[in-house]
Design brief:
Length: 354
């Protein structure tokens, strides 16, 4: 089969690979549409997860099932499905402990384009099909469905990790696709004020639609100085880190109130250490809590988020700024996500309607 893969650090391209085999609890699927994630860019061009050779990229798609294993109960060939970026092993001890995304080891629930081939291929493999696939509602088109693989669950998990409560003032650092969904998630959880850090006009306009009330540009000074000015020196109740780098934690700690929470869903692909300012962290005793987590995957999560989109509670179409047709356009979609033109939020490639 034809597949788009990481050849080595700094290089990606088309290769031929065998169609994956289907285990008794698994499924083989054919993509209907795929989306390129910034994580794909980190993986290839920054070597963020180390060297990989001929590893098929991609973890965002919706699909049609072409084959199921003998023990799969709920899905059959021909079913249109949502596919989460994180596909845990649901019989693992980590899953029983409440951290299915780390089943088999830290981050090991992230299998696509990390520890096994991803979805940028004519066919791909899904482990534990009954636990990881979800039916694609008829009212959600294939382009929007791709946003449910990673953007929506990751952004919403940022709001969960920051423990946003009714009436909270929330700072969202980074308003790319994940950050925009963090804004939406904070709004749904009852935030009264959402301060968004970002400069690209397309992202700013989308953030307003999702509930952002104030905006900060890093070009106008430090995030903490602007945040403290907007909050009369009090700081914010919660910070969601959906962009930036290792130094962003310094600003987050300075911005959040004592007793506040920082939720990070940002993929850190650079330096070896995160910087936490000692004094502003209350010399270690300021009750400023930092949570960083890989988003939950699996069927239940997909079904619930799919219901939010199908009901109109969340409109993910604002994310989908660049839509292409056919596998041949995937290289252009990857280029766009690497170069990040000002009008880009998300690049999606439609493969087939059924």
């Amino acid at each position: 089969m034809k597949a788009f893969a990481m050849l080595k650090i700094g290089e990606a391209g088309w290769i031929e690979k065998d169609v994956p085999a289907c285990g008794p609890m698994d499924a083989i699927c054919r993509p209907l549409a795929v989306a390129v994630c910034t994580s794909d860019i980190h993986t290839v061009y920054e070597g963020a997860i180390g060297e990989r050779s001929n590893l098929i990229l991609g973890h965002e798609c919706c699909a049609v099932v072409t084959e199921v294993g003998s023990l799969v109960k709920d899905f059959k060939a021909g079913d249109r499905v949502l596919v989460p970026a994180i596909t845990p092993d649901w019989n693992s001890l980590e899953a029983q402990g409440g951290y299915a995304m780390h089943s088999g080891g830290m981050l090991a629930g992230w299998k696509f384009s990390n520890i096994k081939d991803g979805v940028f291929a004519e066919y791909f493999h899904v482990n534990d099909a009954d636990g990881n696939l979800a039916y694609l509602p008829d009212s959600i088109n294939t382009v929007n469905a791709c946003m449910l693989s990673d953007m929506v669950p990751t952004g919403f998990h940022g709001a969960e990790l920051a423990d946003v409560q009714f009436g909270d003032t929330v700072l969202v650092v980074g308003i790319g696709p994940v950050g925009l969904m963090s804004v939406a998630g904070a709004s749904l959880r009852g935030a009264s004020r959402i301060i968004a850090v970002g400069t690209r006009p397309a992202c700013v306009e989308a953030a307003k639609k999702y509930g952002a009330t104030d905006f900060i540009s890093y070009k106008n000074g430090s995030i903490e100085e602007q945040t403290l000015k907007l909050t009369s020196g009090k700081g914010v109740d919660c910070v969601i880190i959906a962009g930036g780098d290792e130094d962003t934690f310094t600003s987050a700690v300075k911005c959040v109130k004592p007793g506040g929470k920082i939720g990070s869903v940002n993929y850190l692909g650079g330096a070896d250490f995160v910087k936490i300012p000692r004094v502003e962290w209350g010399v270690g005793m300021g009750h400023k809590m930092i949570n960083g987590g890989l988003m939950p995957g699996g069927r239940l999560r997909m079904e619930k988020l799919g219901s939010l989109v199908a009901s109109g509670r969340v409109d993910v179409s604002h994310l989908c700024t660049h839509v292409f047709e056919g596998w041949d356009s995937l290289t252009e979609a990857v280029r766009l996500m690497k170069e990040k033109p000002v009008d880009l939020i998300k690049a999606i490639v439609k493969i087939s309607e059924n």
